[in-house]
TrEMBL record:
Coiled coil: none
Organism annotation: Carboxydothermus islandicus
Descriptive protein name: FTR1 family iron permease
Keywords: Membrane, Signal, Transmembrane, Transmembrane helix
Organism lineage string: Bacteria, Bacillati, Bacillota, Clostridia, Thermoanaerobacterales
Alphabetized Pfam families for the sequence: FTR1
Amino acid sequence: MLKKLSLVIALLVVLTFAFTVTSFAGTPIGEYKNLLESLYQEAKEGEWGEAQELAYRLQAFFEKAEKEIKELNPKLYEESEEYLPKVLKYTSEKDMEELSEYYEKLIGAFPSSEKKEGFAGLFDSALIILREGFEAFLIIGALWAFLQKAGQEELKGSLVLGAVTGIAGSVVVAFFLLSAAGKTLPPAALEGLSSIIAAALLFYVSFWLLSKASTHRWEEFIKNTANQALIRKSYWSFFGVSFLAVFREGFETVLFYTALFHQVSPSGFWSGLISGTLGLTVLVFAIVKFGVKIPLRPFFLSTGILLYYLTIKFAGYGVHELAEIGWISETKIGNFGISFISFFPTLENLIVQGILLAIGIYGIGKILTNPSQAT
């Protein structure tokens, strides 16, 4: 039964993310930028007639989409009000020197955090589903074994129903919340806020995992969870435990992938999701079919540390996105950046990610050096 459940979960994961994760590539901002770049390219090549034709189209497009651009990116709108008339003027006058100056100013106002190419993000994408899915399986599998040991075979069906309902419920709730947010917030704001929320959840999840790094603590957690439901000896008690365990994992997973989708390449995102799902399925199958044992301490320690890396990355991206649309201040401190942790050269990124890094080093170091965590 567990093998079938794991296959159902894997299938549902792939199908639900296909519906819940969306891209904002088709916004007016993208078309606005394409027209501006085309105009400048024609002017550089001396095709002033084509450039002037594009200038008319650009002006008409901006006037038509002005309200929407203002809502999507207030900072870009303000810069456009100042620099776009200059671009149009110097295109009309065929003044390449002045046009170049104001083009650079205007193009610099567009959001700079674009999706990466190739398979960027494959590892991050695979890690999320592998970690979240395996934790859900561990909890359900441990409860399953607990019921078998307690001679309560008739309650096993409640675990299966609770797990399937938890997956469906988490996806539905996350989908509606994200859809509602998408209708009320600019895309960049939704990207930024979802990344910040995901970072906060990952911060909690990382240290929760690390706190369960000893086999004794994990067994104690499962035993307490199961005992609370077994006291009632109720079908719905175990259904509730199973539902809540999987619902939490599912909701977190949808949110994490929503945040990640805007930071990596599409091929990296989907390749990682599929390979992570396949890896999870193989791992679960090996445990159920062949009794393969996974050492819990190394698993919890390694995945906890890797998820903390995503905490720092998501926080950095979220801060940058909110600064891009003017929701928070942005103080430049250089021209360098560290892409794999989404560090942008601003004081705000340095403070937020620096604090998270310091907390992570201290917390992980304390857990690793604490003798009580070793067993």
